[in-house]
TrEMBL record, chain B:
Family membership noted in the UniProt record: Belongs to the ERD2 family.
Organism from which the protein derives: Heliocybe sulcata
One BP term from GO: protein transport
Protein name: ER lumen protein-retaining receptor
Superkingdom of the organism of origin: Eukaryota
Residue ranges crossing the lipid bilayer per the database entry: 65-82, 94-113, 179-199
Membrane topology label: Multi-pass membrane protein
GO MF annotations in UniProt: ER retention sequence binding
Keywords (A to Z) from UniProt: Endoplasmic reticulum, ER-Golgi transport, Membrane, Protein transport, Receptor, Transmembrane, Transmembrane helix, Transport
PANTHER family in alphabetical order: ER LUMEN PROTEIN RETAINING RECEPTOR
Subcellular location: Endoplasmic reticulum membrane
One of the record's GO cellular component terms: endoplasmic reticulum membrane
Length: 10, 212
């Protein structure tokens, strides 16, 4: 499942 | 992950260690805005609710937990451990003027009408202005301990380094996050005055003093 971009940034 | 974002995260990490180090070695939280620190707790808690729903990597999860835990620990240091050194009478910025407009912005600009998405958006907007009570306090007192300025510089550098990260991501992945980018630009912009004094005075070995 693709993780939306804003979840991988802190 | 790219080098800019990684350096930004390291800078963020460093800023927290510098702040805790300052409070513990001087046994004082003088010059630190409790309001700014309290807003950071709100920022991290609302942003990292995705800890319960989304797993990205061990790095990502550990950093999120660290930011929540360390920001709470700083509040503890300020309100309990070194409470007598915290002077609320100079920490007078009205935080409600920040939270209200950010809440409205989060309701208008978000990536989906769910509690977590709106809170995520709120956290991004709130973070962009969280430093204002601290900068306001600095402006009022007109000076700062050198260690405090290192803390602020590292904290400002964190979001500034996210800007090349976003440019890089646009070209390498075609990925754009307009909410983060806009807020990040505002956030970095707020530091420009501070950076100017930091580079021209503190890094030249002088004390951080604002012109009267």
């Amino acid at each position: 499942e693709e993780v939306p971009g804003h979840h991988d940034e802190l | 992950m790219n080098i800019f974002r990684f350096l930004g995260d390291l800078s963020h990490l460093a800023s927290i260690f510098i702040l805790i180090h300052k409070i513990q070695t001087t046994r004082s939280c003088r010059g630190i805005s409790f309001k700014t620190q309290a807003v950071y707790v709100a920022v991290f808690v609302t942003r990292y609710l995705d800890l319960f729903t989304t797993f990205v990597s061990v790095y990502n999860t550990s950093m999120k937990i660290f930011f929540i835990a360390s920001s709470c620990y700083i509040l503890y240091l300020m309100k309990v451990r070194f409470r007598p050194t915290n002077d609320p009478s100079i920490d007078t910025f009205r935080v409600e003027y920040l939270v209200g407009p950010c809440a409205v912005l989060a309701l208008i600009f978000n990536y989906g009408y769910s509690v977590t998405e709106v809170l995520w958006s709120l956290s991004i907007f709130l973070e962009s202005v969280a430093i204002l009570p601290q900068l306001f306090m600095l402006q009022r007192t007109g000076e700062a301990e050198t260690i405090t300025t290192h803390y602020l510089a590292a904290l400002g550098a964190y979001r500034a380094l996210y800007i090349p990260n976003w440019i890089y991501r646009y070209f390498s992945e075609g990925y754009v996050d307009p909410i983060s980018v806009t807020a990040g630009l505002v956030q970095t912009g707020l530091y420009l005055d501070f950076f100017y004094v930091y580079f021209t005075k503190v890094l030249q070995g002088q004390k951080f003093e604002l012109p009267a």
